[in-house]
Amino acid sequence: MGGQREEPENESGLTVLLAFLANLGIALAKIVAALITGSASMAAEAAHSVADTFNEILLMVGLRRSGRPADRRHPFGYGKERYIWTLLVAVAIFGMGALFSYYQGFETLIGARSGAESDPLVGYIVLAVAFVLEGISWQQALRQTRAAAREESLPFLAYIRRTDEPTAISVLLEDSAALVGLLLAFGGLGLHQATGSAVWDGIGSVLIGVLLTVVALVLGRINLNLLIGNQADPRIVDDVRARLYAAPEVEWVVDIITMTVGADRVLVCARLDFRDALTAADVERACVRMARELRDAHEEIDEVFLEPVPRDDPELRERVIARYGRTLRPKQEEA
């Protein structure tokens, strides 16, 4: 199981490292170009790239710290720490990138400067080089995300909504925003040169700010759900329920609770009504066997807790109905 998880970890590390190197070079080039041209949209893009470079460092820290093994103080491991660092990335995208872009844009629009920019050719060259470098990083992130979606047998967008591994998604969203932002900066720079009005440059900067705000909100929402505690993939939940119902010792599955506790790590808790003829030893052996079978069937399942309970307990029934709107039933009965 550990070896199977190591490969995506290494792939995520490569994706983040490649994005870091690309963004570092791009940020330095954009800063120089912004100083030379005086372009607001170029300055906004420079801030964007500085934020992205800082974000890759956060992602690398998150990858490293979330991989630590479980210990006495953290019996379920440190997997969720990755989501905290990725949430910080969303905050940084907005705080370091979007807000600076808004400031540059509105300052230019209010000032309504006119006149040609100094040496806009430098800006065009930097934007072109940045587009190539961002494209390389974007292709790596897209390739990893598509491969993961295929492995999970999910459509691309469905995988992004359901994934418990947000690192590659973060890089993909950052790089996608960077490519669109470069086009906006190119448009603002070009229209400023063509018309002699800085208004277009300011509009380009504001639009970059809007773009980064959207990316920050999407990324923040993904990680917020994971931090709160998402249910496992519905396909895993359905299969767990079917396997528990199929066990000869089980009379009824009263309740199932699953939670994502890290990348490819799922906690399963189930309350089961066992057949009355079973002895305590029979129930103990059945619980051990079923837990092992569930972990063998799904490598994502890390811990399994099975609790014997009476099926007709009114308090349990109310709790299940409050959570699901109904009592749990075998899959074939629901169909």
From TrEMBL:
The keyword Transmembrane helix applies. GO terms for cellular component: membrane. GO terms for molecular function: monoatomic cation transmembrane transporter activity. InterPro entries: Cation_efflux, Cation_efflux_CTD_sf, Cation_efflux_TM, Cation_efflux_TMD_sf, SLC30A9. The keyword Metal-binding does not apply. It is a multi-pass membrane protein. Residues 16-227 form the Cation efflux protein transmembrane domain. One of its GO terms (biological process) is zinc ion transport. The chain crosses the membrane at residues 12-36, 83-101, 121-138, 171-192, 198-219. It comes from the Bacteria. Keywords: Membrane, Transmembrane, Transmembrane helix, Transport. It is found in: Membrane. This is Cation diffusion facilitator family transporter. It comes from Actinomadura montaniterrae.
